[in-house]
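Because discrete structure vocabularies remain unfamiliar, we reproduce here a specimen of the format, pairing a chain with its fold in token form:
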Amino acid sequence: MNGKPNTRKLSVRVTPQTAFNLERLAAMSGLKTTGRVVDKLVREKMLSLKETEKITKKGEKRND
């Protein structure tokens, strides 16, 4: 690897309550920035959705 992170700059507008909670999550999990919290949350949600999709597809195959 070349040592450079594969990242994109993104601006997100959130409510004050969401910003506060993102900062709390960053502090609790030891992440440096709220951007890393957003990245982690999105990654976890996508894994969850993929797992749900696999289960749903298995159920559809059984009914055929």
Remarks:
- The helical segments are 16-29, 34-63.
- The two ends are 46 Å apart (CA to CA).
- Residues 16-63 form one domain.
